[in-house]
Amino acid sequence: MSTWTRICLVDEIPMLGSRRVARPTGMDVAVFRNDANEVFALLDRCPHKGGPLSQGIVFGKSVACPLHNWTIGLDNGCAKEPDEGCTPHFEVKIEGGAVYLLQSELDALGIDLPAPQAGPKIRIVAA
Questions:
Q1: Which of 20, 21, 41, 103 would be 90's cystine partner, CB 3.0–4.6 Å?
Q2: Whole-number pLDDT of residue 2
Q3: Are strands 89-90 and 57-59 parallel, antiparallel or unpaired?
C-alpha cells in the first residue's frame, strides 16, 4: 500500500508558480501549478547546471530554468529538444483540494544527486 503525504492545498501554490518542499535528506522538491490548475512535482534542480526550477517561469506543462532558460517538462522532468537530460519527477495526487506526494518517492528520489555549487570554493589560508 502506498503512503501519500499531504504537502499543501492546491490554492497555496500560486497559479503559474511553485512552492518548495523541504526534505530531511537531499534537495527540495518543487511543486508547480499551471494555468490549467494542474499540479506537478520535480526535484528543484535543473539537469543542466542545477538551477532552482522553483524560481523559473511556468508556462503550459513546462518550466523555464532561471539560469540558462532550458525548458523542462513538468509532466516528466525532461529537457525539451535540443537540450538533453532529466530531473526526477514525483507522482502527485489531488484529493479534496489538497496536494499529496508519495512518501516513498520523497524518501528516495534524487537523494544521491549532488547539490549544485554556486561557484568555485575559495579556501582561506591563515597568514
A1: 41
A2: 84
A3: unpaired
Stated pTM of the model: 0.89
What torsion do the CA atoms of 117, 118, 121, 124 make, to the nearest 10 degrees? -130
User: Are 23 and 12 spatial neighbours (Cβ–Cβ below 8 Å)?
Assistant: no
DSSP class of residue 89 equals: E
For the chain, what percent of residues have pLDDT higher than 90?
82
Residue 24, preceding peptide bond in cis (omega within 30° of 0): no
**Beta-ladder partners of 92:** 101
Neighbours of 12 (CB within 10 A): 13
CA atoms in the 13 A half-sphere facing the CB of 51? 18
Four-point Cα dihedral 23, 24, 27, 33, nearest 10: 10
